[in-house]
Amino acid sequence: MYRTHHCGELRLSDLDKTVTLSGWASVIRDKGSLLWIDLRDRYGITQLVFDEAYTDAALFDIARSIGREFVLQATGTVIERTSKTTKIETGEIEIKVTEMRVLNASKTPPFTIQDDTDGGDELRLKYRYLDLRRNAVQKNLIFRSNLAIETRKYLAAQGFIEVETPNLIKSTPEGARDFVVPSRMNKGQFYALPQSPQTFKQILMVAGFDKYFQIVKCFRDEDLRADRQPEFTQIDCEMSFVHQEDILNTFEGLTKSLFKSTLGVDLPDFPRMTYDEAFIRFGSDKPDLRFGMEFVNLSDVAKGKGFPVFDGAETILAICAPGCAGYSRKQLDELTEWLKRPQIGAKGLVYVKMEADGSIKSSVDKFYSPEDLKVWTDRAGAQTGDLLLVLCGEDEKTHKQLNELRLEMGTRLDLRKGDDFKPLWVVDFPLLEWDEDANRFFAMHHPFTSPKPGDIVKMESDDKALLKSIRADAYDLVLNGVEIGGGSIRIHDRDLQSRNFKLLGFTPEEAEAQFGFLLGAFEYGAPPHGGIAFGFDRLSAVMNGAGSIRDFIAFPKNNQGRDMMIDAPSGIKAEQLKELGIDVVGE
Ligand code: ASP
Questions:
Q1: In CATH, 12-104 is 3.60.70.12
Q2: pLDDT of 305-318, one tens digit each?
Q3: Do you find a cis peptide bond into 430, omega within 30 degrees of 0?
Q4: What ligand 1 atom has the least distance to the C-alpha of 487?
Q5: What would the CATH number be for the domain defined by 138-273+423-553?
Q6: Does domain 291-412 sit in CATH 3.10.28.20?
Q7: Per-residue pLDDT tens for 42-81?
Q8: Atom of ligand 1 nearest to the CA of 449
């Protein structure tokens, strides 16, 4: 028997018991006549003690030969510690070792296996098996496992059926590039890895499954931004005979239940905001509601006073940064430079300070009287000590830039706490999005999303503005400024689906070639249906106040999309390529 207990288990109540533990040597302290080894496994750490006063000399020699990460099996007696610690759960006891075996030796690891490791990102990814031994990383994956189990329990209790859909499918345009897999048996042809099971889950509704879910891998060949992975996991769901309201209620229920069961947190009812409102108030379709600083539009009161920059601007918007009137010239210059970086692209920053002595000072005093400025600060609800930050320019750009500034100020003022949860539903997304470069409309969510019934008539129009104004039964679940989930009510009528494909620039032949199976299915009694998908990695991260989804994925890829541990992607042999009917190029 390798062990009688695990390393997180023994307490004072176990005193005098003879026990056997197995695990990895973590911290080793050698004080000459006394030696301690912290033995670690998934469950915790237990201190082993060796004392020249009573430890057999041969055993003491073994203890001295132990290095970090050796795998050990130790037998001994549970004794009370003289110097107790509350840092670990077993901190009141230690094991007076009488026998020890080295089950396996270890090279000195390239970084310390501790919560605060000295290993850089790339090194930790290369030796992921060592990184995964760290408590901090294990904790995340255990959380993820609980979250998956609780998701299954909740959805199963609601009558959802888990169905697996294929990974080798056909290329479908859903916004990103597909990963493709060559087919050996059908030379020159390719499968695509699914960006999501979207069409399959709709087909399952046509088949009468009524409520489907799947915790499923999705693949998108995108340029990797900081918090993206080429393969990621969704909680993917679809329901029949539902309106938007039914979906929102069901998945608000799931989210609340997950918070309760995994974190013990009770979430209040989720507020709802339309896409338009979110844009006007926060300049974003995923507003972080953990703090205020809502946008204030000053266009009507700031124009016409002789300040040419404002007079020539489409929009003038402000936010009020609480308690920031004391910002120095240097701080304001630095903030201005931050805004002017190409990533944000603002032209400049105007500020108004509500000084402690009641006076108002601004960077545009030349053009505006204190009375003029008071109109602005009143509108923003600014108090003594507050700082108004004002941006101007084209309407859409200025909203986006001020959103960045708002988030940055929220971070600087420490208003975005990881354990404060502010969910909301953003609803009524536009159906279509105009792409200037491509000179055509794209689906804002995906091509299967249904317009709101009242807006269907607008689909017949050629008027771009009218088409842009079509609203969809599409919604996002947003949590702390992060899009956690998104979905829509789907089109279930063949003609309407064809009409939508046409708006998106598909010829009837192209639509038939790509989605003929779905259009065909719609001719055999497709029920009204809709669904949603949650980003599972992201949900795990946000629930833990963590910035990166990588910490919640067992084997993530790096920023170049590489798996550093197995060294993938890699070349393949010429014979393999030949077998696949792919011409060998290069080298
Ligand atoms: N398939 C969609 C996505 O991956 C989610 C949905 O509409 O249910 O974003």
A1: no
A2: 999 999 999 999 99
A3: no
A4: 7
A5: 3.30.930.10
A6: no
A7: 999 999 999 999 999 999 999 999 999 999 999 999 999 9
A8: 7
